[in-house]
Amino acid sequence: MALVNHAKKEINAKIVYFGAAQAGKATNLNFIFKKLKPDFRGQFKSMNVQGSKMLFFDFLPSGQGKLNDYAVRFHIYTVQGDVPQDSTWKMVLKGVDGVVFVADASSARQTENHTSLERLQTCLRGHGLSTDALPIIVQCNKSDLADAVSTAEMQQSFGLGGGAFMKAAAGTGEGVLECLFTLVKMVLKRLRESGLELAGEAVEGTATEAEEVAGEQSIPAPIVVLPAAESSAAGSEETPSENAASSVEILEGVHLTADGHLQVPLSIRCGNMTRRMVLNLAVSLEAE
To answer: How far, in Å, CA of 279 to CA of 261, rounded?
Structure first.
């Protein structure tokens, strides 16, 4: 689910590259990162998560992909290689807005593709999502191999009615950006139609060509930003009395960000005033 930063007038959307080991997920991200213009992309980062290596970066097309006067920043994630634990993928898929399912087109890897797709569907169900409702691209990667299964055959075999199937060869870059930009447009369309509230106004506007960011910067790792603090007290100059009772309540939505910060939404009440804010804690994860 896209998150809104009202202070920066940004919408943060999340794209996850999912697939079996050796299907080409990390190869996709490496190629995309190199081809995005430095002015529009963030640092390529990695993080060890439950014994697996998560890769991620973000990009913000300059003047592109706006909804009303809010820019859309896309955060791209994957987990490299084999991922033993479903909980790792489930964590990465939390809040996802679109998925590129990287399927190995070689004939010998079709069983792994189907197993991985079932895994994706299971992890999405854990978040109340499905491949039918979520924007999804099935990237038929390694389509340049001699034994590659055709895109039409893979589409028939997978049976994903709502997904778009596209040929690619991540090793050479063929079709990689096309897959990403097609999904970006799908996510923008879904956001536009979702009625996402932006400073009291519904999302409007038309998706523009994200391809203009292609070419070859560094933006920090994604941070979940909650809406600006709100006060329930009437009048901006009202202050609590010195002896007013105070309380602190931890709200739903405690979140561990990709760069190791624990964000805890709080509701702080003092007398007749209530403030909402986010407590940011630096978390260091070390193996025993």
So the answer is: 10
